[in-house]
Specification:
The protein has 282 residues and is mainly alpha-helical. It is 68% helix and 0% strand.
């Protein structure tokens, strides 16, 4: 029997509310700062309530851009980041699903050796192998291109490992039943494995999309064309302006707009993720 302790419940809610306010305060400051003119943010104290320049600031960002980003409109950078994030996410999930499917359900020489070679790459992050990767991309002529932004980052040992572990939990009786019904490997993969994997796919989609959206080092290294700048590169260029004072109202507006796609993806995929969890327990 659970005891009803009003004092403990009140204390718990107070701690949760304080923690939420602490985490949301920087976001509030960024949203408020993006609605003020630039001179209001270089004086003390910083305004904590909305100004009257929201439409003007965001219109300038989305259409005209700012000098520190080479005049590239924010809509272009948002589009580049969206293409890159979706390409990396879909590529990682597709390659990881097929790799795990091959490792679990097919018998071929050195099968486990290939799996462990994939798994060992977890110890080699992008920063460690970035120079040889850059050389390969340069020799293939993929600099300043979407393929150069996406293809080198679409392999994922983590996702392959997670899908492999999930496939190993599927009963052998299900595989035998599909075989008796005449389902081949391709039909078994699309009609049985994919629907059962929707929970894993939803969770990985959220994680991998945010991973691709937040990429900075790799796009910064292989892109010199301003039309291929990502939103993270745009924020970095707005902040690092040398001895000049950053244009904080534009920087904060860019940060606010950069937060929206990941938040929307989390909200959209969370329902599918929870639905998959509930159905898997029935």
């Amino acid at each position: 029997m659970v005891e009803n302790r009003p004092l403990a419940a009140i204390l718990t809610h107070v701690v949760l509310i304080l923690g939420t306010l602490f985490l949301c305060f920087p976001v509030w400051v960024a949203v408020v700062a993006s609605t003020h003119p630039g001179e209001a943010l270089v004086r003390s104290p910083i305004p904590l309530w909305f100004g009257d320049k929201a439409w003007e600031n965001y219109s300038q960002l989305l259409s005209g851009g700012v000098p520190s980003t080479g005049g590239v409109p924010l809509s272009t950078m948002l589009g580049n980041s969206l293409i890159m994030a979706i390409g990396i996410t879909v590529g990682k999930i597709a390659i990881s699903l097929t790799s795990a499917f091959a490792i679990v359900y097919f018998r071929f020489p050195f099968r486990m050796l290939f799996f462990w070679l994939i798994f060992i790459t977890l110890m080699l992050p992008v920063e460690v192998r970035i120079l040889p990767t850059y050389e390969v991309v340069a020799r293939l002529g993929m600099l300043n291109s979407y393929s150069g932004l996406i293809i080198p980052l679409i392999a994922s040992a983590t996702a392959t490992f997670l899908f492999r572990q999930f496939f190993l939990t599927i009963p052998d009786e299900l595989v035998e039943a599909a075989r008796i019904d005449g389902a081949g490997p391709v039909r078994f993969f699309f009609d049985i494995l994919l629907p059962l994997s929707r929970t894993n796919i939803a969770a990985l989609f959220i994680i991998l999309f945010i991973y691709g959206w937040n990429q900075y080092l790799w796009p910064f290294l292989i892109t010199t064309d301003p039309d291929l700048y990502t939103i993270v590169m745009g924020i970095q260029r707005m902040v690092n302006v040398g001895e000049a004072i950053p244009i904080w109202h534009y920087t904060m507006g860019t940060a606010v707009l950069a937060m929206l796609p990941p938040v929307l993806v989390v909200l959209a995929m969370q329902r599918l993720f929870v639905k998959g969890l509930v159905e898997s327990e029935k």
